[in-house]
Amino acid sequence: MLKIITKTFQQLTTKELYDILQLRSEVFVVEQDCVYQDIDNKDQKALHVIGFKNEKVVAYTRLFKPGDYFELSSIGRVVVAEKEREHKYGYDIMKASIDAIKTHYNQTKIKISAQCYLKKFYNNLEFFEVGEEYLEDGIPHVGMIKN
Q1: Which of 39, 41, 89, 140 would staple 116 via disulfide (CB 3.0–4.6 Å)?
Q2: SS3 for the chain, per residue?
Q3: Using one digit for the tens of pLDDT, what is the confidence trace for 115-124?
Q4: Is 57 left (phi over 0), alpha (psi -120 to 50) or beta?
Q5: Tens of pLDDT, residues 7-39
Q6: Could you give all domains of the chain from N- to C-terminal order, each with its CATH number?
Q7: Quick check: pTM over 0.90?
Q8: Which of 46, 19, 35, 133 lies closest to 144 in space, CA to CA?
Q9: CA–CA dist 17, 110 (Å, integer)
Q10: 34 burial level (CB within 10 Å; 0-12, 13-18, 19+)
Q11: Which of 101, 72, 84, 111 is nearest to 6 (CA)?
């Protein structure tokens, strides 16, 4: 069972921040073989949605209010540890993120920049493609919006 909490950057403990950055690096840099600057000075503005299993960070997203990343509120850095994906925690962390945007930002319209191979996953969460595919850090992405 996933325990999900939402925190501002200032509320994160040093260990939580370390574990989040480790998970993001493990998946986005190592697993996806993508050299990019993950630490981008945007975490300070974001809300952090963290999924714990047995006290270990296994799922994560970061949220932005309208205007902080896109014109709309947004969810980014969606990640689930490889060994935990069979449990469908991606849906749990995304649903918690959508709820957190409603709660903290009073918004329901959300934009994401999705890796193309995950379109069906996001479609299942009622996100739909807008615009053309594009490369971000060498990986095909597409903009998607949930109304």
Answers
A1: 140
A2: CCEEEEEECCCCCHHHHHHHHHHHHHHHHHHCCCCCCCCCCCCCCCEEEEEEECCEEEEEEEEECCCCCCCCEEEEEEEECHHHHHHCHHHHHHHHHHHHHHHHHCCCCEEEEEEHHHHHHHHHCCCEEEEEEEEECCEEEEEEEEC
A3: 999 999 999 9
A4: beta
A5: 999 999 999 999 999 999 999 999 999 998 999
A6: 3-107 (3.40.630.30)
A7: yes
A8: 133
A9: 25
A10: middle
A11: 101
Q: Which two tokens stand for residue 87?
A: 């449990």
Tokens representing residue 23 in the block: 């998970």
Of the candidates 117, 114, 118, the residue with the CA atom closest to the CA atom of residue 131: 114
Q: What confidence tens digit (pLDDT) does each residue in 36-76 have?
A: 899 999 999 999 999 999 999 999 999 999 999 999 999 99
Give the pair of three-digit tokens for residue 43: 């975490």
**Residue-level length of the chain:** 147
